[in-house]
Design goal:
The protein is built from four helices and seven strands, in the order αβααββββαββ. By secondary structure, it is α/β, with parallel strands linked by helices.
Length: 185
């Protein structure tokens, strides 16, 4: 039998209210310096600003008397649990972080931090940067180092053709350019 917590977590995931924990949360967390700075800034903001302000609201609401029908108290406590959970998650991610600067020279193969331009089977060109799990941003072309595309491109060189096992079938990717540059924020 499923617990109420599990059902609420599934509902929140579907609604986009919380983010799923990455599959490799217990392994090394490769991340760029900019990504680490964003994690640290969020952690500090939650710990130093949001949490203390929320604790004040909860204390005020608790002083008003009956807590069973006090919405400020009930929802404040729920939000406090969410913040505490996120603080713990960020702390663990930063603890496991392996910061790798993508701006390096002399590397010809594709590894973490590479910015790669490739042509797919349809002939369309795409440029992606291989970043950490916490930095994924498809709009900016940032893909996770554990994504299928990044795994297919791993260790390839400029001019190589690699095979990507896509759901629709195998796709060949031709590597057109490999660069290692600092990624903007």
């Amino acid at each position: 039998m499923r617990r109420l917590e599990d059902l609420e977590r599934e509902r929140a995931l579907k609604a986009g209210q919380i983010r799923p924990v990455p599959a490799a949360a217990s392994t090394k967390n490769y991340i760029t310096p900019a990504g680490y700075a964003r994690l640290k800034a969020e952690h500090e903001r939650l710990l130093d600003a949001e949490r203390p302000a929320l604790v004040k609201v909860i204390a005020w609401a608790a002083s008003n008397g009956d807590r069973s029908e006090n919405a400020d108290y009930i929802y404040g406590k729920r939000r406090l649990r969410e913040i505490d959970h996120r603080i713990r998650f960020l702390g663990k991610r930063m603890e496991a972080a392996e910061v790798v600067d993508p701006a390096r020279s002399g590397v010809e193969q594709i590894f973490f931090g590479a910015t790669v331009t490739y042509r797919d089977g349809d002939g369309s060109e795409r440029t992606v940067s291989i970043v950490g799990e916490d930095e994924v941003d498809p709009v900016r072309g940032h893909i996770s180092w554990i994504s299928p595309v990044a795994r297919a491109l791993n260790r390839a060189r400029e001019g190589d053709v690699v095979k990507l096992n896509a759901p629709s079938g195998p796709v060949e990717l031709e590597v057109l350019a490999v660069r290692y540059v600092a990624l903007d924020d």
